[in-house]
Design goal:
Chain lengths: 289, 248
């Protein structure tokens, strides 16, 4: 009798163990996959002469990144509840700052640049305290989190023609582009992030997000140089409301728009000439129709 | 020597017979696929939920397009006879690969009067479709698939006069699409595998190009979820399935 109940008990227990194990296995599935991906070709990075190796980044990720981006790279670190904007989810592999068309993976160099540049007005600092090798290794590490790097190649970077000289004609033409494609709908006619649609913008996960304010002296999230501005509106910031304008702004016009955008910013290291031209022309904000 | 000649002959003969049979069966499936169909209605029972009117005052252009015809949300559109519009009906089980290829014309998703027309655009996985704009205001078209499934989210602007965007989706998924500039603009790319149909104002639908066989057919509605039915299509006899979604 006793042995029978014992038998039944052990039966139940082993059944429970099997269930628990299978549940565990499901929760761990992603980690197991990520372990496999750590050995895949995607777990390396190539930035110029640098070659990054994911395995070499394990300790620096644990030390510097895991608190926000999380153990499994899903952007769910222990600090995440207190952060806004939220840390990037590396499993989805949807990135704002790219040189590649909307809907494609960024290049290794894009990720490398983002780490070194940080993201202004967010909790992502400038990680130039890490050596270039460490950053290259981290790029490779980031790529081992998502199935996308196993199935897709990085997009082909957009072609950016050589930057022309800033002229009054170009600044004026840039303002016409600003009006035509209606940048002001979100960014406002003076670039003050107060366009009619600014207050209702949400990101891909439905969280409130603000358009860039050109006038408050902050740095654009994906870089401050003329080429960075060019890339921002020609590739779009994926995961945010900022679309790609590549189908509707020609490469030459894109430079005009860059020059006009410069006139909206307060004086900085890049826009002395553009601001001077705007002043000479007596440029008024576009008329929203 | 003799033996090899025989076997050679036999091999050639069998190849010929096989090719002949193959051609015959191919012919059959093609004609059957073109004939077969599944038809029926999608209805809504109970009181149709109130659809909130849309305030377009953010954009005077959009307001102007609807001066005399106020518009409401289209999450659940019920006709006077209880027909449920914009439900997508597709084959969820029983696909053999013999179905007629999807029409070569590319389904069109238009942005008109600051609304999506149609509100739900159904398509086959890997079928090309196009996004166009008829409006004199800038839209951004921002589909939000789950990046882990193989469909990758993107976000493109379409200012007035913009060229069409022609693209496709890799895998079956009901993809929410929105315009960030006009937050009321929300619709779906209903990507399914195989033949499909969308219910019209009266709730009627017809799926064409279904070869004879037994199928499970699913009706999907963005708010009300899915319903399934078993359907048999025989040669010269179309299958039929009616669906009724109950109001909450």
């Amino acid at each position: 009798m006793r042995s029978k109940s014992f038998l039944r008990c052990s039966w139940l227990m082993s059944a429970a163990a099997v269930v628990a194990l299978s549940l565990c296995a499901r929760a761990q599935l992603s980690t197991v996959q990520q372990q496999e991906w750590l050995n895949s070709p995607a777990a390396t990075s190539h930035i110029g002469n640098l070659t990054g190796n994911a395995k070499a980044a394990a300790s620096s990720y644990r030390r510097y990144c895991v608190g926000c981006h999380g153990e499994m790279g899903d952007g769910n670190g222990e600090n995440t509840p207190w952060l806004d904007p939220k840390p990037r989810d590396f499993q989805l592999a949807v990135f704002k700052c790219r040189s590649t068309p909307t809907g494609t993976l960024p290049t290794d160099e894009d990720l490398f640049d983002t780490i070194g540049r940080g993201l202004d007005r967010s909790n992502m600092p400038i990680w130039n305290t890490l050596t270039k090798d460490e950053r290259a290794d981290l790029v490779a590490w980031i790529k081992h989190f998502s199935p996308r790097w196993q199935n897709e190649k990085a997009g082909t970077p957009i072609q950016i023609p050589a930057e022309p000289e800033v002229t009054p004609e170009r600044v004026k033409a840039g303002q016409e582009v600003f009006g035509r494609v209606q940048c002001w709908k979100c960014h406002g006619v003076q670039g003050m992030a107060n366009g009619p649609s600014a207050s209702t913008l949400t990101d891909d996960l439905g969280r409130t997000i603000l358009p860039y304010n050109f006038t408050d002296g902050s740095r654009p999230k994906c870089g401050s140089s003329d080429r960075d501005l060019y890339k921002i509106f020609m590739t779009g910031l994926d995961g945010t409301p900022m679309p790609s304008f590549a189908d509707n702004i020609k490469p030459d016009e894109a430079w005009d728009l860059v020059f006009y955008l410069r006139t909206l910013q307060p004086h900085n290291a890049f826009n002395a000439r553009e601001r001077q031209i705007a002043k000479q022309l007596g440029l008024k904000p576009v008329n929203p129709q | 020597m003799k033996k090899t000649r025989y076997s050679k002959f036999a091999a050639i003969l069998s190849v010929l017979v096989l090719v002949g049979l193959g051609a015959l069966s191919l012919n059959q499936t093609v004609s059957a696929a073109a004939e077969g169909s599944i038809a029926g209605t999608v209805k809504f029972s109970g009181t149709a939920p109130h659809m909130r009117g849309i305030d377009m005052s953010k954009d005077p252009y959009c307001v102007k397009q609807h001066e005399n015809s106020p518009v409401s949300l289209e999450n659940i559109v019920v006709g006077s006879d209880g027909g449920l519009q914009n439900a997508v009906v597709y084959i969820s089980e029983g696909l053999t690969g013999n179905e007629a290829a999807t029409a070569s014309n590319k389904p069109v998703f238009d942005q008109k009067g600051c609304q999506y027309i149609p509100h739900v655009l159904a398509m086959d996985a890997n079928q090309e479709f196009q996004v166009i704009t008829s409006d004199q205001t800038t839209h951004n078209i921002h589909p939000l698939p789950n990046a882990m499934t193989g469909n990758i989210p993107w976000n493109k602007s379409q200012p007035p006069g913009a060229p069409p965007i022609v693209t496709s989706w890799k895998t079956a998924e009901m993809i929410s699409v929105k315009c960030n500039i006009h937050p009321w603009m929300h619709g779906y790319f209903a990507v399914v595998k195989g033949p499909y149909a969308t219910s019209d104002k009266s709730g009627a639908y017809t799926i064409h190009g279904v070869p004879p066989g037994s199928y499970t057919v699913t009706a999907w509605q963005e708010e009300l979820g899915t319903q399934t039915a078993k359907v048999t299509v025989a040669a010269g006899k179309p299958g039929s399935a009616d669906f009724t979604f109950k109001g909450k």
